[in-house]
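[Automated response] Your request has been received and processed.

Submitted sequence:
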Amino acid sequence: MQGSCSLVGLEGWFLFFIIGAAPWLVVNGVFVEIPILVKRQPEGDKLAAIIGAVVQIGNLAPFMWIYCRHRFGISQKNTVGVVLGIGIICGLLLAWTAQDTVSGHSIPLLGWTFLGGICGCLSKVTWFPFAAEYREAALSAMSTGMGLSGIIGVVIGVAQNIGNINEDASNANFELNTVFYILTGINLFGLLAFVRISFSQGFKTNWVSPVYTRINSSEEEEDGDFSDNASVISTSLGFEPSPGIPGGRFDHGLNDSATHSVTEDGQQETVTFRVLLEKGKIFLLIAFLNSFFNYLVMPGLLPYLQYDTSRIFWSTTMYYIANMLGRYIPSYAVFVTPNLLPVVFFLFLTGVYLFYIGCSSDPGVGTDGESWWATIAAFVFFFSLLNGYLATMVAKVVKMKEEGEGITPKQREVLLQTIGLFNQAGSLSGTYLTLALASAGALHKTTQAATVTATLTAVGNSTLSLDI
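Generated structure:
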């Protein structure tokens, strides 16, 4: 981060970073605690699959929200704030009632997890469009925060001794409610970061996207002139300031400006599916493939690549660290490229290799155990690094095209929302392919743990379910 960034840039990066980590924390927390919950709740071993199915219903929310957004003009910025607020409420309710039952069923646990799943699924179509209203660096920061969400679960699991609990889970280092209080605290920081971003005029002055630098004279008198600052910002990001887009305005409704985009002749802009494909078909394809291979490999396939839960756990940890690192790398201009196809090619090769190993009989037999672990861990690390990099770069390239090649704010918003839907479609396809192969016995080294893990992958953000 260069130029005008310094302290202001560091603060802004952290604010978007913590917002990025927030939406899946509740669901991740539930998955972290599944080894304890299955021992205490009446559903027993069936609970994991039930929770996975409950969260899956949340996948309907993005479609409904997008329809309401473009049909009724629901505020995108307000949606982000509401999702963060609901995450806090869900965390508190789970801390208080996660182990309660109603008529012999874990109704409170399932109900609040369902609500948390809706929050996570909605973030797929709202988080990047929200960040794209601001400087390009906001996308990298928010994407990196999304990678942090998985690492938080790993850290909590290690601290709680989740992998070595006894039959009644009495030897856990701390109870479930403590876990959800911790996650609620992080969500609270996310909400405070959102408030800072949304209502601090000084922050908006330094982080407004160069696209929104065209301000009429009345707005300049009310809110200040930002055009000079925009030149510094855009230069620090490695491209020249764009000349402004008709209808694109910077004001207190910045994050809803795309809803009101107009064409040069003053007509309301409509983004058709044909326009969407013309502007972003390659991004939609990359988003689908990236999510497909991600959830084909992690975590459903991972138990078939290692021998014991300890190695599975550390491979999972490496996966999350690499994913977060990959998401962070595009923060530096030297690693930013609009040509993502070579990265997709290497992701494809690595994913196919790991999938081949998972389908092979007794992988690793006849080789040194530590050598096999290191080899698979290296491939998993590289695969996850590429996956995280693509997750950030798809959004960043869309943003770069908006600022340099004439994509309007409306087109950018709709394209990023559709990319989120393609991400969901890819994750579901990869998840259920792994689950179907595991159920059919096509994947080797099948265990109850691996089968349950494949089921849990469906939510798109499971963490320590590998140790079940």
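Summary generated for your ticket: The first helix runs from residue 6 to 21. The two ends are 42 Å apart (CA to CA).
If you did not submit this request, please reply to this message.
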